[in-house]
Amino acid sequence: MSEQVNAPSGDRRRYDSSTRRGAAAANRQRILVAARELFLARGYRATTVAAIARRAAVSSDTVYAAVGRKPELFRELVETALSGGPSPVPGRDRDYAVTMRAAPTLAAKLAVYAAAVTAIQARLAPLFLVLREAAAGEEDLAVLWREVSERRARNMRELAGDLATTGTLRADLSLEDVADVIWSMNSSEYYALLVLDRGWTPDRFRTWLIDAWLRLLTG
């Protein structure tokens, strides 16, 4: 007579829970990929949750449960584009921000940041163009636009303070001046103009940022 060995109930519960979490994470990722593709192809207004669900091969209810309504979907895409990972990460806690604060010179800090801006905008700028168009008629997206803009301005003031610790900024520039210069050039609009419209390569854009910032901010 054969003997059947059953896994302990605690192990089975952990396995089942882990399996469910894995399936939920996979669904969420497929939903976000589908949403990004459709928003970029059709625009915000013409994209429906039902269409996103069909492309992701899930139900509309799963879309709502995994991420939320259409504004929440778009917000999540923007936040993960900024963070560069599956979940949003505060600006100062991102890897490049930690590396930049540890860099010993102004040139080294700006080189790290220029590379980060280029990578971020490759993900974010196409979404930003959709956001810019939709924000005029969608209050949820207008709020998102303001939040991102205000957060970026705050982050630039903090970045300017970090650059000032090197002692090599131009003496005639205030920290607000420094923040404004960087803020204007790390934007999705600036990236879109040069890379998406004028056909610059991302590497040329990164190199240009480093050179321009060094010329503008040091004397």
Automatic annotation (TrEMBL):
> Residue limits of the HTH tetR-type domain?
25-85
For the region Disordered, what residue ranges are annotated? 1-22
Keyword field contains Transcription: yes
Q: Which PROSITE patterns match?
A: HTH_TETR_2
Highest taxon of the source?
Answer: Bacteria
Q: Which UniProt keywords apply?
A: DNA-binding, Transcription, Transcription regulation
Biased-composition ranges, Basic and acidic residues, are: 10-19
Indicate yes or no for the key word Membrane.
Answer: no
List, alphabetically, the SUPFAM superfamilies matched. Homeodomain-like (SSF46689), Tetracyclin repressor-like, C-terminal domain (SSF48498)
Which Gene3D superfamilies does this entry report, sorted A to Z? Answer: Homeodomain-like, Tetracycline Repressor, domain 2
Query: Which positions make up the DNA-binding region?
Result: 48-67
Q: Which PANTHER family match?
A: HTH-TYPE TRANSCRIPTIONAL REGULATOR BETI, HTH-TYPE TRANSCRIPTIONAL REGULATOR RUTR
What protein is this chain from? TetR family transcriptional regulator
Species annotation: Rhodococcus antarcticus
The lineage is: Bacteria, Bacillati, Actinomycetota, Actinomycetes, Mycobacteriales
